[in-house]
Design a protein that fits this description.
mainly alpha, 222 residues, 2 domains, three-stranded antiparallel sheet, 4% strand, 11 helices, Four Helix Bundle (Hemerythrin (Met), subunit A)
Length: 222
């Protein structure tokens, strides 16, 4: 296949330009699920093989592409555009779970949340993206399970697992991880001072950080 070239900003490295352009096409659906992609398919963008290779490798490491040995890359079968549609659903369910949980929180529960968030900060310092993703999910899981509704907690676990590819992208950058950690701290602080409205607002927003980051980064849906 041939990828139609598009203007690339001079403010970024060539590898970054290719990465953002291809990522936007994957999320927007211009590169359909199941599409095979090779380095030579991107030569029409007017850059050499080295930044193309760099961009494709980064996209594969973040879950936007699947690496196929000796064949190149493939856009995963699950549309990233469809995954983005899950975020408002998950955020709403997080809000419901939070309402149930906040009435039952104990000092021990808050201590556990602080411990999980501390381990998340340690994983950030170590650059362990997989651990960051797992610990963020654990933070939210502890809240949803405290609500006492098993079906809701199980449903949220399933939905979070479906979002893993996009969450992997989010936690691949130090600044974004720090934003999540800071919001977790604010959630805990709001619960401690009895400000449930603030805690629920933060909880709902926190689960949508990846979605907002993609949109703000210029790669979200139109």
């Amino acid at each position: 296949m041939t990828v139609t070239p598009s203007p690339l900003s001079e403010a970024r490295t060539l590898g970054e330009q290719v990465y953002r352009a291809v990522r936007a096409r994957i999320i927007g659906g211009a590169l359909a699920p199941g599409t095979f992609l090779r380095e030579k398919d991107l030569e029409s963008m007017g850059v050499s093989r080295t930044p193309i290779r760099e961009a494709l490798g980064r996209l594969a490491s973040e879950g936007f592409l699947e690496r196929l040995p000796h064949r190149g890359f493939r856009v995963p079968e699950e549309s990233l555009g469809n995954l983005l549609e899950l975020y408002p659903i998950v955020a709403s369910l997080e809000l419901l779970a939070g309402r149930l949980a906040l009435e039952r929180f104990t000092p021990a529960d808050l201590a556990e949340l602080k411990a999980v968030n501390g381990r998340l900060a340690a994983a950030r310092d170590q650059g362990d993206v997989a651990a960051m993703l797992d610990l963020n999910n654990e933070f939210h899981r502890r809240i949803s399970e405290r609500g006492g509704n098993r079906r809701l907690a199980t449903l949220l676990d399933d939905l979070r697992s479906q979002l893993a590819r996009l969450e992997l992208w989010y936690y691949s950058q130090h600044e974004r991880t720090q934003r999540s950690i800071r919001e977790h701290e604010e959630i805990i602080a709001a619960i401690e001072r009895g400000d449930r409205a603030r805690a629920l607002s933060l909880l709902e927003h926190n689960m949508s950080l990846t979605y907002h980051s993609l949109v703000d980064d210029g790669a979200g849906p139109d």
